[in-house]
Amino acid sequence: MLPNLWGLCSHDHSPTVLHNSSQHMNISVSIADKSCYISAVYAHTNYVQGRNLWYDLNAQIIANDGPWTCIGDFNVVLGANEARGPRVPHALPSTEFKTFTDCSKLIHLATRGSLFTWSNRRSGVALTEKRLDKSLCFTKCGPSMRIVKVVENIWNRPCYGCPMYILTQKLKNRKKELKLWNKNVFGNIHLNVKTAMAELELIQNSKTIMPSQDWRDQENLAQNKLMIALDVEESFWK
Predict the structure, then answer these.
(1) Which long-range contacts (CB under 8 A, 24 or more apart) does 10-14 make?
(2) pTM given for the model
(3) String of b and e for 45-54 (b: at least 16 CB within 10 Å)?
(4) Of 33, 91, 135, 182, which has the fewest Cβ atoms less than 10 A away?
């Protein structure tokens, strides 16, 4: 039987296969003298088999400390927002997948292009589309760690005077720098979410009144924009 997953990598990155199964392959690579980990995923369509995959991936992430990327066909959606068709996706597989990504502290990376990566290639009311291909990552260098670095840099700046004056100045500098950091990294995150939701709602209403491929394409772009805004908002609260 031919393998269903193939891995190609430059020898310069010293690739090492850590674990493999019929649903995934985990490798470690060396980048800038640091170990990074990659999981190529092709999940089973049966969600019961998917449970074994979530367990294996979580165990590997725990056992190998460092940046992780999980890329591939996960054959599951996070919720109804990642599917379109005559039937609502089953809740249990979505819940189990979300539990796995939350427990593994994996971030769903935003993608470009069409929101849905799979379809049954039918037309009209029989058409079903889903977002099954995803890219997830785990890194200690997320927004929460970057803000720690910002605060450390501010606090370590030299300041002279009496202890109370030094403390007051450091607190003022921290407030100023954090405001600037928040604006540069996140912008007005809550406003961005509301704007993206309003744009999507307007397009969906227009598509209902005047169905066309153009409105459908615009809806895909608007949904992708909303997902990006929601991911940024989620990162802000972590």
Answers:
(1) none
(2) 0.59
(3) eebeebeebb
(4) 33
